[in-house]
């Protein structure tokens, strides 16, 4: 008798058929269910994914898919903001897969790639309800550099920009519980 309580987790490069569409669909469905965001957000994610698919430089840009028991359950993208700055984009972990540190592992992949690609800094834009993601970013040494109220995706939000000096070394905190924060 096999033990189905053992789950297999993997982080792999984006690139299989269906990956791009899954990223867009998962963002649309999860953010609508958890935060009440409308299809404007899904459209934004679709543009980010389409831009990546149409014109990415594999030496400077990459994306990853997290899998749990062979199912897609998470993603993150690392794209060039400019010659010296990488941008972490569209981090997501499906609610059913949270608590496995997949968000932290995806962020770590993104940071490690940006360092190997010789970026000097990394930035990201997020919004105030995304507490678990922010906890991961802060534990990796990101610091908030901007904050602004806005109305987007059908709701009032506080947008936040974070930056990370990629030359700095920051001890990685244990955020095993961070992904469970809502």
From TrEMBL:
The protein in question is named: GNAT family N-acetyltransferase
The UniProt record lists the keyword Acyltransferase: yes
Task: Give the EC number.
Answer: 2.3.-.-
According to the lineage, what is the superkingdom?
Bacteria
Q: Report the residue ranges that make up the N-acetyltransferase domain in this protein.
A: 9-171
Query: Keywords for this entry?
Result: Acyltransferase, Transferase
Q: Signal sequence: where?
A: none
Q: Does the keyword Mitochondrion apply?
A: no
GO molecular function list: acyltransferase activity
Q: What PANTHER family does the entry give?
A: GNAT FAMILY N-ACETYLTRANSFERASE (PTHR13947), LD18367P (PTHR13947:SF37)
Q: Name the InterPro entries for this protein.
A: Acyl_CoA_acyltransferase, GNAT_dom, NAT_camello-type
């Amino acid at each position: 008798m096999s033990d189905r309580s053992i789950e297999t987790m993997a982080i792999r490069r984006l690139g299989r058929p269906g990956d791009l569409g899954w990223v867009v669909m998962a963002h649309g469905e999860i953010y609508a269910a958890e935060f009440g965001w409308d299809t404007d957000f899904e459209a934004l994610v679709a543009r980010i994914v389409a831009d990546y698919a149409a014109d990415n430089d594999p030496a400077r840009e990459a994306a990853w898919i997290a899998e749990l028991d062979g199912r897609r359950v998470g993603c993150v993208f690392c794209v060039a903001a400019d010659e010296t700055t990488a941008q972490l984009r569209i981090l997501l972990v499906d609610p059913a897969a949270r608590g496995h540190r997949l968000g932290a592992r995806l962020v770590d992949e993104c940071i490690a790639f940006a360092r190997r690609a010789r970026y000097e800094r990394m930035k990201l834009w997020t919004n105030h309800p995304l507490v678990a993601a922010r906890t991961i970013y802060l534990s990796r040494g990101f610091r908030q550099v901007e904050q602004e109220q806005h109305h987007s995706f059908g709701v009032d939000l506080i947008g936040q920009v974070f930056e990370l000096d990629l030359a700095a070394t920051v001890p990685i905190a244990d955020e095993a519980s961070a992904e469970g924060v809502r």
